[in-house]
Amino acid sequence: MNRVLSMRKITEKKRCLIVIALMLCSSWAQGQTQLTIQSALEIAEVNSPQLRRSKMNLERFEENLFAQKASLKSKFSLDLSPIEYNNNRVFDSRLSEWYTNESFNSSGSFKVEQPILLTNGTISLVNKLGWQDSKSSVNDVTNQSFNNNLYLEISQPIFTYNTRKMALKEIELDYENAYIDHALQLLNTEMQITTQFYSVYTAQNNLIISKEELINAQKSHEIIKNKVDADLSARDELFQADLNLSTAVSSVENRQVNLENAKDKLKQTLGMDISEAIFIIAGIQIDSVSVDMDVAIAHGLESRLELRQREIEQKNLEFAMIKTRAMDEFKGDVALSFGLIGDNEKFGSIYETPTKNPRVSIRFSIPIFDWGERKARIKAQEIAQDISDLNYDEEKIDITLSIRKVCRNLKNLYTQIQIADQNVENAQLTYDLNQERYRNGDLTGMQMNDFQNQLSNSKINYSQSQINYKIELLNLKILSLYDFEHNTSIVPMDALKVYKKK
To answer: What topology is assigned to 31-63+168-316+385-501 in CATH?
Structure first.
């Protein structure tokens, strides 16, 4: 018996130390980084790995678009061949004899090339300047001279689609799609962070409730201990009080672990240092928000970025169909050039006797038979377009149903908040009344523990019902892209055309 009493004293000292430590927890928050939901979102915009990845992807497509637009401007190029030496043995069919030709050349070519976006053609201005020293074993002929070829050239594809226009449009759509992905990632991150933020808040709140349970259990333990010591209650009541106190201590420890795990998850999502200490500040104020379901659905169908992504997918499939139809198609190329060629031993006299060199070239590609390849590929693309149309219609239905569901849930959740608030009030009154009965010995420790659990659960349910309502409001904002709390649109319609400003 003495050993049992000794162990009990040690346990009671340990419990007292735990209670004191828990009471000091509130002061620890002063040395921690305090986070509100707004500050958490601001940190995520800078540090979140998901947002950084989507932003870098957006910048990549932005650079691709800039490069594609730059490719439509005039290009200047210079090719130089400063030294070229040849010593060849050549057969002259006219004289039926072999001869040796030794040559030394130096040349350069300057070219200005301008793509034509409207017609998919190209216009070029070319100047080729060279010097040669040529010797032949036939009659010991030697020639040293300068030569220059200046000409204007136009190349134009015909009977086919404009590849430059399509390439530019495809990259514009890729950039727009990347912008939409980034905007969606912002919304998804807001939902993810808000959910995790309130998970930490819930864990914090549950820990506070557990501390209150521990304090109440400590008071009840002292009451019953004094009554047992005074032989006013049976000793088995003290055993039950010991069990209730141990359970309260264990609950605090478990919820402390849950809080730290929730904090680590939030810090990972925010891109914060895992070792950094944080403390959540969340003043939840719940007001009934008036939501017009028809307005929410209409705005969602008009503004949802996923629908624009489906439209981009359809447009890309149209481009793919154009390319597929161009397989083995009848097409041609027209090339025109006109210029002057001059040569002379003296550089300044190159164009004393110039030679005109006009050139016209027309070329056609005529398919004959491909064993049905082109027809099959066109059919496959038509099926892909039909699937895309079905996906677009299904997306609109999903958006409508999701918004309708959330609107209904909001009404129910607000009702649940009012019920939970009343439950907390009733549970607190019940606990206070029965605590006096417990002091008077009219209730057992087990019964009192039931009232404590009822009070704690009602507080947890009330806090969770508030959080559920806030998260569902955010869900409605993401689904409809409209903030009914502030009556503002989330994404302006012209925001998707950012690339036109560049």
So the answer is: Outer membrane efflux proteins (OEP) (1.20.1600)
